[in-house]
Amino acid sequence: MERESFEDNEVADILNKHYVAIKVDREERPDVDTIYMAVCQALTGHGGWPLTVIMTPDKKPFFAGTYYPKTSSRGIPGLMDILIQVSGLWKTRKDELLASSDDITAAMQKSMFTHDRGDVTEDVLHKAFQYFEQSFDAEFGGFGRAPKFPTPHNLSFLLRYWKMTGQEKTLKMVEKTLDSMYLGGIYDHIGFGFARYSTDRKWLVPHFEKMLYDNALLAIAYLEAFQATGKNQFAQAAREIFTYVLRDMTSPEGGFYSAEDADSEGEEGKFYVWAPEEVREVIGEENGARFCRDYDITASGNFEGQNIPNLIKTGYIEGRGQDREKLFNKREERIHPFKDDKVLTAWNGLMIAAMAFGFRVLGEQHYLEAAESAYQFIREKLKDKGGRLLARYRDGETAYLAYAEDYAYLIWGLIELYQATFEPLHLEQALKLNADLLRLFWDEENGGLFHYGSDAENLITRPKDVYDGALPSANSVAAINFLRLARLTGDHELEEISRRQLATFGGTVSDTPMGHTHFLMAVFLNIRPPVEITVVSSKNTAETVQKLRTVTKLFLPEALFRFKSLDRDEPKTLALMPMLKEQTAIDGKTTFYICQDFACQEPTTDLEKVEKILTKINSSHNQ
Questions:
Q1: Largest Cα–Cα distance in the chain?
Q2: pLDDT tens figures, 574-611
Q3: Spatial contact of 623 and 166, defined as CB atoms under 8 Å apart
Q4: What is the CATH number of the domain that holds 99?
Q5: What pLDDT digit, counting tens, does each position of 398-426 carry?
C-alpha cells in the first residue's frame, strides 16, 4: 500500500483534501495497534497488516480493513473508491457514522480485552499438547500448513511438557521442527539469522524480513533444545544467530536494531538469492558445483527463477565454512535491504535474555558482554529524567512511555543477567522495574497488566492482552517473572501476585491453551517443584560462574541460582535475599545448597556431587 497508494499523488490529493492521514509505526505504538486491530477483527472477522482504519476526530472507529489496492479490482474495493465514498457519507450522513462509531467503541469497551478467571490445572497443559500433536507436520516439522511461523514459545512450552511427562514424541516434535527450520530457506545460510516466516510448508521460501525478536526467541529455543538433547547442531544454530545479531544488528553504542526489510531494489528477496554461475564465479568451478549441489542451487531455480540456499534435501553438512564466507563477502557488495535501526526496549530485553542465557549455556564471554552493553544502553538512553522507562530510541531521540511488554521483557533480561553473573545489581534493577510495572500497569480491581501505563496517553479503551502470538504477551512473560522473582527473594507478596496473575486469565487460557503457550510455561513453573541452588563462596563471581558451567548446561527451567559472596556485596545480597543470612561456607570453601520443593539437601562443597544431584533431578519426570 505504501508504494501503490500512499506515495501516489492521486491518493494523496484525496487524503489531504478530506482526511487527516496518520501513519502509525505499530512497533512504536503497540497500544494503538492492539486497539484498532481488535476493531478490525471484530468488524471483518480477520486482521493483519497493513491495517486501514477510518475514525472520527475523537478516535472512535467506524471503518476498518487490511489491504486495499489503489483502485477496485477482482472484487476488492479500491482505496480511492473507499475514501471518496466515506467522504461523501461524512457530508451527507454524518450522524449515522458518529452513531456507528459510538456503538463500536461501546461494544469494544464492554467485551474486548476482557478475560475469564479460573484455575489453570495440569490438564490444560495436556490439552495444549494434544492440539500440537494433532497439528504437527511429521514430514517437514512445524504445525499446520502454510504459511508457517517459527513461534519459538510453542517449542519452549513443548520442551517443558516433555520435561514434565517424559513423552519422547514431544521432544521429537521439537527436534524435527528446529532441524527443519534451520535447514530450510527461512534460515539465511550465507549470513545467518532467521526470516519472519515461511510462505510454504517446507520452510523453503520465507518472507525475507528479519526481526530481532524472532531471532532472540529462536536462540533461546535452540539453546534449550541443546540443553535437553546435547546435540551440537542446536548450539551451532544459536551461535550463528548471535553472530548475525552482533555483526549486523548491534549499534556502536550497544543497543540492538529492530529489523531488516525483505526488499532491496524494489524486489523481495533479491539480496538473498543466487544463480549457479554466481556461486561458481566466487568459489570456483569444483567448489561451486559442490556448494550448488549441497544447497539446492540449480539452473531452473527454486524461487522465481533464482535460488534460495537451503539444506532441505541434503541435511546437515560439514566443511563449507570458507565457501560460505566468500559468498557472504561477495553478497556484501550488493545493495542491502533497509535496516530499521530504531532500538526498542522490549525487543532489546528479549535479546539481552537470549545473550545472557547463551553465555550461561555456551560459556562464550562476548555474549555476556553484549547483553551487559545493551542493558547499559537502555539505562543511559531509554529513561526520562524521572527514571521512567521509555520505549524507543533512534538517532539520538527517545520517544514514548514504555509499555507493559517493555517492562516485562526487560525484567526477563535482567533475571537472566543475574542468573549468568550473580551480580546483585541486576536483581535489584529487575525488582525495581517490577515494582514500577505493578505501580503503573497493574489492574487492582481485576488483576493483570494493562497494555499502557496509568501515566500514558488515554486512548478509547485500555487493553489488557494475554494472547501469545508472534510475540509472547506482557502478561504471560510477567507471570513467569513474578514467580521467578518471588522464589529468588522469598517475597510472599510477589508470590501472591503471581498466583493472582494465573487466576486472572485462567478461564481464557483453559479455553484455548494453544494460543497461550508462554503463559503455560508459567503454569508449568507453578506446578513443577521448584529447584533452588545457592552458592556461598569467597571466590570471585566469574570463577564461580565458570565452576558451574557443567551444571548450567542441564535443562532445568524450574531451577534458579543464587550467589552469596563472603567478601563483597554481602549487605546488598542479604537485603535482596534475606533467606541467605544463615547459609555459610563450610570450612571457607565454596558451598552449595540445593533445595527442591522447599526441602533442602545437606550442603556440600563437592561440585561433582552437585552435578549428580541436579542430573538426577533433571532426569526425573512426573509420569
A1: 88
A2: 999 999 998 999 988 899 999 998 788 899 999 899 99
A3: yes
A4: 3.40.30.10
A5: 999 999 999 999 999 999 999 999 999 99
| Average pLDDT, rounded, for the chain | 94
- Residue labelled with grid coordinates 533467606: 579
8 A C-beta contact, residue 465 and residue 473: yes
81: left (phi over 0), alpha (psi -120 to 50) or beta: alpha
Average the pLDDT over 360-372 and give the result: 97
C-alpha cell at 292: 550448488
Edge-to-edge strands, sheet with 599-600:
559-565, 531-537, 591-596, 599-600
Identify the helix (H) or strand (E) that includes residue 290: helix 285-294
> Is-contact 271 264, C-beta < 8 A?
yes
Report pLDDT for 494. 97
Task: Give every CB contact of residue 434 below 8 A, 6+ residues apart in sequence.
Answer: 407, 411, 481, 482, 485, 494
Cell of 243: 553472530
- For residue 271, being part of any structural domain is answered with yes
Kindly tell me if the per-residue pLDDT of 134 is higher than 80. Answer: yes
List beta partners, residue 307. Answer: 274
Distance CA 618, CA 163 (A): 8
Positive or negative, the CA dihedral 351, 352, 353, 359 is positive
Q: How many residues does the chain have?
A: 623
DSSP strand E in 302-342: where?
339-340
**Residue whose grid cell is 480491581:** 445
- In the chain, the number of structural domains is 3
Contact indicator for 121, 161 with CB cutoff of 8 Å? no
Strand positions, DSSP E, 202-245:
206-207, 210-211
Does the residue 125 lie in any domain? Answer: no
- Between the two ends of the chain, the Cα-to-Cα distance in Å is 53
Q: Round to whole Å and give the CA distance between 221 and 498.
A: 24
pLDDT at 623: 43
Across 234-246, average pLDDT: 98
Would residue 488 count as lying in a domain? no
Domain boundary among 310, 340, 370: 340
Cα–Cα distance, 212 to 379 (Å, whole number): 20
Whether the pLDDT of residue 539 is over 80: the answer is no
- Is the pTM above the cut of 0.85? yes
Residue ending a domain, choose from 285, 313, 340: 340
Please give the grid coordinates belonging to residue 234: 542446536
Averaged over 266-272, what is the pLDDT? 95
58 neighbors 75 (Cβ within 8 angstroms): no
Tell whether 209 and 72 lie within a shared domain.
Answer: no
Enumerate residues 6+ apart whose C-beta is below 8 A from 332: none
Pick from 603, 602, 597: nearest CA to 617: 597
Contact at 8 Å (CB) between 113 and 463?
yes
- pLDDT value of position 114: 82
In a domain, 47, yes or no: yes
% of residues, the chain, pLDDT over 90: 85
CB 430, CB 353: distance < 8 Å? no
User: Which phi and psi angles does 336 have, rounded to 5°?
Assistant: -80, 150
Mean pLDDT of all residues in 144-162? 97
Task: State how far the Cα of 136 lies from the Cα of 107, in Å rounded to an integer.
Answer: 37
Q: Which domain holds residue 272?
A: 146-156+166-340
Q: H-helix or E-strand containing 54?
A: strand 52-55
